[in-house]
Amino acid sequence: MVPSGDFAFGFQLVGIEGLLLAIWFNKIPEKTVVWSANRDNLMRSRSRVQLTSDGDFMLSHPKGEQIWKAYLKGSRVAYAAMLDTGNFVLVGHNSTYLWQSFSHPTDTILPTQILDLNTNLSARFSQMNYSSGRFMFAMQADGNLVVYTTDFPVQTNIYAYCATNTVASRFQVIYNESGDIYLMGNNRRKLNDVLSNKAPVGELYQRAIIDYDGVFRQYVYPKSAGSGAPMAWSPLSTFLPKNICTRITASTGSGACVFNSYCILGDDKRPVGSTQ
Description:
Mean pLDDT: 86
Strand order of the largest sheet: 10-19-20-21
Helix content: under 10%
Number of helices: 1
């Protein structure tokens, strides 16, 4: 757990006996997961995560089979730390970060997090199924920010339904402490907004996620009940795309809804499949 207690790192129970090595918001009842190591391979009891005497950080089955490992750049880990930002870091003997969860996201980004070139967010399969799903938010190596459908269960891109059409080197997606999420060019200037919401970090917990329905949304949760706002995750008004039902027009895949259904937006602006 971090000094503030806002985030925790460890095993979270999924279903009856599945264990997910994860980072989550620790001060809210939902214990919302923001990162995980073994989303496609849940563990069972007596599994363990360890920092070995050789300086490796890994997740193993009870019989010793390695399931996940943080791949380092040749240096040995001195210690691990959970930061107040929600970033879990492995630190070398010279105090440099050898590995950090912010550089290896799953489906979520947090304030102060940066998506560098060739970094993806992969949607979960459903609300409570954390395994890799049908959509990908990709900061491509060519500088183009693209949201794709995937060839589920294989994480291969099929159809791009949102793109910034920016091609240049050293572009990044920035999520700053003011709640802005934007694309920054190689001249260190804002190129364009990804989401144009404003939400101060000091009063609200925040996260942005490529949801299981293929929409990139930003959510906030009050840090205290005195604000008068609902004590729950609330989506902000700007999301990407505005209407996913009309944006996914590919002839392959199931689109935003299930196979053989019409896709319409419900009152909450989420896609709903209809067979009528």
